[in-house]
Amino acid sequence: MKKIFYIILMTVLLTILFLVSSALAQSSEIKILLDNKPLETVVPSVIENDRLFVSARNVVEALGGRITWFPALKLMTININGRTIRLVIDDPTLE
């Protein structure tokens, strides 16, 4: 009798744990603050392998900069405060 009770109890607890964790996973929206104001992004931010991926365009424009994308070269240039940053996809260096 005790064995059946423990099996039922464990089943109920695991079911509750699964339902709560799936509900939390669905409602976890990443909010980014810039100067204590929420940053509105067109593309939702994602956490993958403990890294946060954010739309570069939204961040750069919120900082008052300009971003340009050259798809043929896989090159992104960012201009902020008179400085230029060049990022190339699949290239670990930064200019």
Description:
It comes from marine sediment metagenome. InterPro entries: Cu_amine_oxidase-like_N, Mao_N_sf. It holds the Pfam family Cu_amine_oxidN1. With 95 residues, the chain is an alpha+beta fold. The protein has a domain at 1-29. The chain is built from two helices and seven strands, in the order H-E-E-E-E-H-E-E-E. The chain has helices at 2-27, 56-62; strands at residues 33-34, 37-38, 46-48, 51-53, 66-70, 75-80, 83-88. The protein has a three-stranded antiparallel β-sheet, covered by helices on one side. Strands 1-2 form a two-stranded antiparallel ribbon. A two-stranded antiparallel ribbon has the order 3-4. The mean pLDDT is 80.
Sum up the structure in keywords.
95 residues, three-stranded antiparallel beta sheet, Copper amine oxidase-like N-terminal domain-containing protein, 2 helices, 7 strands, alpha+beta, Mao_N_sf, Cu_amine_oxidase-like_N
